[in-house]
Design goal:
The chain has 108 residues and is mainly alpha-helical. The chain has one domain. 62% of the residues lie in helices and 6% in strands. It has helices at 20-27, 31-50, 56-70, 79-85, 90-106, and strands at residues 2-4, 10-12.
């Protein structure tokens, strides 16, 4: 879920709360940071698209993404690693993801 962020780039997770300093920082990410951001965005897309679907594939994808988001592992490319290297609070981002999913499930 991308919202337009002018000519400088784009910001994922439309509706999530970011500090102005974080939004400015997202516009000038280095390539390796863009990769980490893409991982977060891909997880969000899978969760928002497949949550609530009943197929085995959809359930498996959602389960894998939730496992990744819930993990406090600090290995490279883990959720927490991505957040910390993008100066995002993992706990706050998780709460935003859950809030957004609740809105999707409730049809808001």
């Amino acid at each position: 879920m991308w919202m337009n962020f002018g000519s400088q780039g784009q910001v994922p997770f439309e509706g999530m709360e970011l500090l102005p300093s974080q939004m400015a920082a997202l516009a000038s990410l280095r390539p390796e940071q863009r990769l980490l951001l893409a991982l977060l965005e891909a997880a969000w897309e899978s969760l928002s698209k497949y949550s609530g679907m009943r197929s085995k594939r959809a359930k498996r994808l959602v389960e894998q993404e939730f496992e990744w988001v819930h993990s406090d592992d600090l290995s490279p490319f883990s959720f927490r690693f991505c957040c910390e290297h993008l100066d995002l609070d993992p706990k706050v981002l998780r709460e935003g993801i859950y809030r957004a999913l609740d809105q999707i499930w409730l049809g808001e």
